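User: Please predict the structure of the protein below. I'd like the answer in structure-token form so I can feed it into my own downstream comparison script.

Assistant: Understood. Taking the following sequence of 84 residues as input:
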Amino acid sequence: MQKQRLLNVGFGNFVVAERVVSIVNPASAPMRRLREEARDQGRLVDATQGRKTRSIIVTDSNHVILSAIQAETIGQRFIQEENS
């Protein structure tokens, strides 16, 4: 059985690292539209714990995950997870 690696997206929330397609900054208009479309279609997972959204994670199942951790920080965690 293959061991699944988990990516910490902040505040005790984890995502299966192999399912992550992209980690992006939420500031642009296309990312805001992506978030709204995901919310309307029931594909949005809010992992911010009530804090400001600082990154958006898109998975291979087309789910959109909001995180209060900077995209750069999650990216570094992703790289560390791949190397371990």
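That's the full token string. The beta strands are 6-10, 13-16, 20-24, 44-47, 55-59, 64-67.
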